[in-house]
Automatic annotation (TrEMBL):
One Pfam family, short name: Hydrolase
Record-given protein name: Putative hydrolase of the HAD superfamily
InterPro entries, A to Z: HAD-like_sf, HAD-SF_hydro_IA, HAD_sf, PGP-like_dom2
Organism lineage: Bacteria, Pseudomonadati, Bacteroidota, Cytophagia, Cytophagales
Keyword Iron-sulfur: no
NCBIfam families hit by this protein: HAD-SF-IA-v3
Amino acid sequence: MQKIRTIIFDLGGVIINLYVEKTIVAFSELSGLSEKEVESAYLSADVFKQYEKGLISDADFRQSLRDQFKLKVSDYEINSAWNAMLGEITAERIESIRYLLQNYKCIVLSNTNAIHERAFHKILSDSFPYQHLKELFHEVYFSHELNQRKPDREIYENVLSLAKTQANEALFMDDGIQNLNSASQLGIHTLHIPRNGGFMHLLENKLSDI
């Protein structure tokens, strides 16, 4: 029987609730564009991927949004609209993570960015005795710090190396099918978590099947 030693958590939609539609609404209200126009730009613009890879600064990212959506608003208003997608972290999930830490190496692998990182750490510290996810998890890896992002193969290879973990001893949970497919191709066990759904019951079932 294969033994799982490391559990890799996605962040948005798995640990913290994610409501992308709230950010789309917020930028629609700031710009006067329709929600459909904002969503189309969000899905197609390369700047979001560049920002998640840490290849552009916060200031350059905000300026690109001003240019794209014809915005004449403050940094604060842009940050607030961008952070609108970040929801709550439930106590149940924190307790589940604490329980898993007793028997597994638990790490985070997230496509994120500097503005969101500051925001979700404030959400975390406002509700729990942690200032940073590193105080809860064994290791934390953010795309904007690695200059890599899911679902690119190299980010999984890099994290396995950094975490000193074998692919067949790791289980990766994510709400994105494409991210899971890429990890699976490397031999990592994977588990799809419906966005903002609880993960513990699904995880226990998966672990019992491996």
